[in-house]
Amino acid sequence: MSFKIAIPTYKRYNIKTLSLLKEFNKTDIYIFVANQDEYEKYYNEYPNYNIIIGELCICNQRNFITNYFNEDTIVICMDDDILAFKDRQFMCWRIPYI
Length: 98
Hints:
The protein is of the alpha/beta class.
């Protein structure tokens, strides 16, 4: 199954969520920023990721993300400050090795 990961962010130049996504292809991860100034700062920090200029304000940004991808693309939208995932099958926390 093919999917894309979208991470909207604003003025958080250390995206914690990326430490959980090391096993995923960087070309499938899209970081959505608010403007050109933010683009340059994030690009300097994460040059191997897709950095997309979207909209200011999280509501507008989430709408932008929804419209950015093709209708048949599966998109997983994640916050930029996730530190761990909870595995409900085994009822344990999955914390990356940082």
